[in-house]
Amino acid sequence: MTISLRKARTIIRKTLEKGRELELKPLSVVVLDAGGHVQAFEREDGASPGRFAIAHGKAYGAVMLGMAGTAQMARAEQQAYFMGAVNGLFGGQMVPVPGGVLLRDKKGDVIGAVGVTGDTSDNDAAAAMAGIDAAGLTGEI
Questions:
Q1: Over 80: is that where the pLDDT of 1 sits?
Q2: 39-98, pLDDT tens digit by residue?
Q3: Contact 112, 2 (CB under 8 A)
């Protein structure tokens, strides 16, 4: 199974709604499929143009490693050489911090990832989880 465009749009819409509810800085949200390809992306008014690359990097690391952003950050702190090498293999595209959330279906299979950026990493992850929950999927932060 992969993430449908309809579910991806729901995730983005509800993530942005949660950001407004929490009065977060302008967010950017990307949804990737299980192969790391962009399914959908939105950047709120006022978000800097570089936010796509950050959101993508958070989600890309999660889906390519099968490891959510929080786990990636812990791994980077414990084994910086490993995460540096892996990031090199992926062309420097990974951003190993919270806000990169693995998407799982009801069976627990990885079907993609969500990357959110714009506020603190923890707030980005919380907003992502609201969107994922609204889409009826399971997120791993």
A1: no
A2: 999 999 999 999 999 999 999 999 999 999 999 999 999 999 999 999 999 999 999 999
A3: yes
